[in-house]
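ugh ok so i messed up the first submission bc i forgot one of the chains. this is the corrected input, ALL of the components this time, i swear. 227 residues overall. if the numbers dont match what u have on ur side tell me asap before i send this to the collaborators (the ones from the other lab, u know who)
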Amino acid sequence: SQTIHQWPATLVQPVGSPLSLECTVEGTSNPNLYWYRQAAGRGLQLLFYSVGIGQISSEVPQNLSASRPQDRQFILSSKKLLLSDSGFYLCAWSIRGAAPEQFFGPGTRLTVL
Amino acid sequence: KQEVTQIPAALSVPEGENLVLNCSFTDSAIYNLQWFRQDPGKGLTSLLLIQSSQREQTSGRLNASLDKSSGRSTLYIAASQPGDSATYLCATRPMNTGFQKLVFGTGTRLLVSP
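and heres the new structure output, hopefully the right one now
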């Protein structure tokens, strides 16, 4: 069966500090990978998705970037965090193909102070 | 631009009741619609996926229906239990944004009392 991991589970960072969140998927190959953010009082927003190694699509211009150095690894980064980057970050995966079902990880709670 | 609305925002029921959660969307051109459950501080658990050509899907005590022409989906929970307490989210996959993107509603927070 497939599993998806995210770490860290929680993170408190000062404004202006860098960020690196990691997501890995086990039990599948060539998945599509996604990063979402869930801010307080708002719905989930797709930030990035990737259909393969080194292939990143950005949905929303912002202070964040994503990378996919390996087939089942997806990283969310920032060089300098803003207060508005606080939120719950969720990684998801799906099989390749048209409009597949997405499966989510446990999430990372980021607080920027 | 697709907008997804979930009503009610919160719902409290006694154990054993059958209940219906509503999801409406503005653009009926969708690939599919997915229902999720989210426990506090946790990730999302996929409950049901309904393709645009389908009218409903069932899993255990859950039944989800889709009426694309009217832009509505409902999630029916039979014989509710305290363990069903969570936030329920619906998400559509609009055709005009590429098949990778899910557009989420803000959810219905359900509390089932023993």
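quick check: Residues 75 and 103 of chain B are 17 Å apart (CA to CA). that seems consistent at least. Chain B touches chain A at residues 4, 31-32, 34, 36, 41-46, 49, 51, 89, 91, 93, 99-102, 104-107 (CB under 8 Å).
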